[in-house]
Design brief:
The protein contains twelve helices and no strands. By secondary structure, it is mainly alpha-helical. About 45% of the residues are buried.
């Protein structure tokens, strides 16, 4: 499915900024809920709430077109990579501050560069290798020994970044032939289907009250709205313009972490985050030309 020509870059930038805010709130809500509930329940709530909201809002309008796909196997594998990302990142958020965890996860585009040559057959130029090395250097600064981060949390966030990179590579492969809303619904469908049988083995979430139910609803709303805004943004403006802006999510995560958890990165961590953002901007700038 091809997107219409991008012709309103200012609108696209505004949409991507709102999307990054939604994703920062999504991670913040997941971190808050994971402090009380098992990670499996938090992930299940995230996918189930998103799927139900999509079914209620889009189901009457789209019918079976909401889930009909030409590649069910590849959609399932793609959604599995996102599920692994969710489980790894939410577990990392239990152990580390929001901003630092987000910064590590945002090394995913750097992994995409490493995977592109082998999986997609793309040529990786010198500038992309430099940006990749720069981004990983920034990640090392953020996760440095003595920086207050846990080794298991860093490994989990790094695994989440790798899983997210594989998810992004498969998204790139499927995006030219699949409806984006079908891809979003499959994410929710696969996540819910795989996690539901596991729930009896991880106990009952506690507490279950208006506060936690509101957080569950917030997970579904922020995930669904964030992805919707992301899709709309890329229909209005080119990826080379929007990709660097998406790195504002690291700064948004720092703001959410400070406001709700009293966690603010130190100067050295902010330096590492800045390097990661610059590396992402360089990758996006180099990506203006076909690989």
């Amino acid at each position: 499915m091809s997107a219409p020509p991008a012709g309103r870059p200012i609108v696209g930038v505004a949409l991507i900024v709102m999307a990054t805010a939604c994703f920062a709130l999504l991670d913040g809500t997941a971190k808050s809920l994971a402090a009380m509930w098992p990670v499996i329940w938090v992930a299940w709530a995230r996918y189930t709430a998103q799927g139900l909201l999509m079914a209620v809002v889009l189901g009457p309008l789209r019918g079976r077109r909401l889930w009909h796909t030409r590649s069910p196997g590849r959609q399932g594998v793609r959604a599995l990579f996102l599920l692994l990302t969710t489980l790894a990142v939410v577990t990392a958020l239990q152990r580390m501050p929001l901003a630092e965890t987000t910064a590590v996860v945002f090394t995913a585009p750097l992994f995409v560069v490493l995977l592109s040559r082998r999986i997609l057959g793309e040529t990786v130029g010198v500038r992309r290798w430099i940006a990749t090395a720069l981004g990983f250097a920034g990640a090392l600064v953020v996760t440095r020994p003595g920086g207050g981060l846990t080794a298991d949390g860093v490994l989990l966030a790094g695994f989440g970044a790798l899983s997210l990179a594989l998810y992004q590579v498969m998204t790139r492969q499927l995006s030219h032939q699949e409806d984006p809303f079908v891809m979003l619904f499959w994410n929710a469908l696969v996540g819910t289907a795989l996690l539901t049988p596991v729930l009896p083995w991880v106990g009952t979430p506690d507490p279950i009250n208006l506060g936690t139910m509101g957080q569950v609803l917030g997970l579904g709303l922020s995930a669904g709205l964030g992805h919707f805004l992301l899709i709309r943004a890329f229909r209005e403006a080119p990826a080379s313009l929007l990709s660097p802006v998406s790195y504002l999510q690291i700064l948004a995560a720092a703001g959410v972490g400070w406001l709700f958890f009293g966690q603010l990165p130190d100067v050295t961590s902010f330096l590492g985050m800045t390097v990661i953002i610059l590396a992402g901007a360089l990758l996006a700038w180099d990506g203006r030309k076909p690989a």
